[in-house]
Write a structure and sequence with these properties.
Aspartate Aminotransferase, domain 2, binds pyridoxal-5'-phosphate, Aspartate Aminotransferase, domain 1, about 475 residues, 7-stranded mixed beta sheet, globular, single chain, about 15% strand, alpha/beta
């Protein structure tokens, strides 16, 4: 295209003002914010002009221009962080927001946050109170620990504890526990940031009592144990059981800390899980400081919980870093309501969504998968939907060795690739996140809510048989 030709095409490009005054422009302005409409028109006109000038585009089509502006306006008018449907079967999916909170927990967050609260006000004394007081009693009751504190997340909890107890001094850790959890939590890095000095002992696969004993010196501040999270050393291995480490700490008058990672408040043995000690068991083993996440197996909001002996928690609470990683009232409200459910274990498994999804009977998952399959079959002709058996994972580095038997709806689409279908469902409204296995798209019914079945069938139908 010659220069004069492209000039001619450019001159037919509508101006911002023309588009604002067009019927479409008027319609946009009645629904959307003026600033969003204006920016969208400007941006799309500018990018169309650039494309014409550079020759990437030979001519433009008014309808296409309007469609582009319309979708930009819609994108910019919707929130970036929004609800999605998790059909992956992974319950504690770090990328999908980890734990899901119950309506009752959220009602407490709303009722505390929509007005003023006694966050730091002692209603009996009529004077300043303590923000941490609202959750300490419940945590002590549930874990049997002397004292408790909640901070922003478990990474912050570990950092804060190390910085308080071992700044400038040595912390003894087994080489088998120098793990990276993902999302850049690496034990050696956290140690360096906390100003504690890492003293590695043992080997990757074996660490013995004598390794710890041999490393203790007058610079030793702490004996640390770290949960290996989603990593396992198998075969010829041994590590020092936590009660033996606690005993060593007592004999040498050194505090013992355990970063439990997930931190389960329930005894999971009745559910067939024998690998994960409850926090209460770790307290009973004699560990002085225990840290764990609020939004992994506990099923609460994001937070890092520290429980243990008052003697160590008092200075931890007074560390200026504690102020930097403190939690807000919404988190406290969500924790208090979640922890209240743990006073009755049967209730916890029923009411806490993460626990319910993990430990629901397979027959229930099968029924839900069956209902989804029949909805899809009714709605979409010419495709075959099967209910299949599969396994799902807990996620979030929790219970990595356990495969939870599950049921999923499986689809091998006829007229579109499985990757394309996965992508389109992910880009839809609401986004539906699925997983692909053996060339089939799977909708794992473990993490799908009963109220989400029709939205999934709408989404699949929207992609496979567009109007
Ligand atoms: C998950 C995990 C952490 C980090 O916890 P966050 O709450 O995500 O900050 C730290 N240590 C271990 C062992 C973990 O599993």
């Amino acid at each position: 295209m010659g220069r004069s030709e492209s000039q001619q095409v450019l001159s037919t490009l509508p101006s911002v003002d023309e588009l604002l005054k067009s019927p479409e422009g008027t319609a946009w302005l009645t629904v959307f914010r003026r600033r969003i409409v204006l920016n969208a028109i400007r941006d799309i006109i500018a990018s169309t002009r650039d494309a014409l000038l550079s020759g990437r585009l030979q001519s433009f089509d008014r309808d296409a221009l309007i469609r582009d502006i319309d979708s930009r306006i819609r994108r910019d008018s919707s929130f970036s962080l929004r609800r999605i449907i998790n059909a992956t079967g992974i319950v504690l999916h770090t990328n999908l927001g980890r734990s899901v909170l119950s309506e009752r927990v959220l009602q407490n967050v709303v009722s505390v946050s929509i007005g003023f609260s006694n966050l730091e006000y002692d209603l009996e004394a009529g004077s300043r109170g303590k923000r941490h007081s609202h959750t300490t009693r419940l945590l002590r009751e549930i874990t049997g620990a002397e004292d408790a504190l909640i901070v922003n997340n478990n990474a912050a909890a570990v950092l804060l504890c190390l910085n308080t107890v071992a700044r400038g001094r040595e912390v003894i850790v087994s080489r088998g526990e120098l793990v990276e959890i993902g999302g850049s939590f690496r034990v050696p890095d956290i140690m360096a940031t906390s100003s504690a000095i890492l003293r590695e002992v043992g080997t990757t696969n074996k660490t013995h009592l004598y390794d710890y004993t041999g490393a203790i010196n007058d610079q030793t501040a702490l004996l640390l144990k770290v949960h290996q999270s989603n990593y396992r050393v198998t075969g010829f291995t041994s590590d020092l059981p936590v009660n033996k480490l606690a005993k060593l700490g007592r004999e040498r008058q050194l505090p013992v800390m355990y970063d439990l990672g997930s931190g389960c408040l329930l005894d999971l043995k009745p559910f067939g899980v024998h690998s994960e000690p409850s926090v209460k068991e770790v307290v009973e083993a004699g560990v002085d400081i225990i840290t764990f996440s609020g939004d992994k197996l506990l099923g609460g909001p994001q937070g890092g919980i520290i429980v243990g002996r008052k003697k160590y928690l008092d200075p931890i609470r007074k560390n200026p870093l504690a102020r930097a990683v403190r939690i807000d009232k919404m988190t406290i409200a969500a924790f208090e309501a979640t922890l209240m459910d743990y006073l009755d274990e049967a209730r916890a498994v029923r009411e806490i969504p993460s626990l319910r999804m993990l430990f629901q009977p397979p027959e229930e998952i099968q029924k839900r998968a069956g209902r989804l399959a029949s909805l899809l079959r009714k709605r979409i002709k010419g495709e075959r939907f099967f209910v299949i058996r599969d396994v799902s994972k807990a996620g979030g580095g929790s219970l990595p060795e356990i495969e939870f038997p599950t049921f999923a709806v499986s689809l091998k689409p006829g007229n579109i690739s499985v990757n394309e279908l996965e992508r389109k469902l992910r880009a839809g409204t609401p986004p539906v996140i699925t997983r692909i296995k053996n060339e089939a798209l799977l909708f794992d019914a473990r993490t799908i809510g009963d109220g989400e079945l029709s939205a999934i069938s709408d989404a699949v139908s929207g992609v496979l048989q567009p109007a």
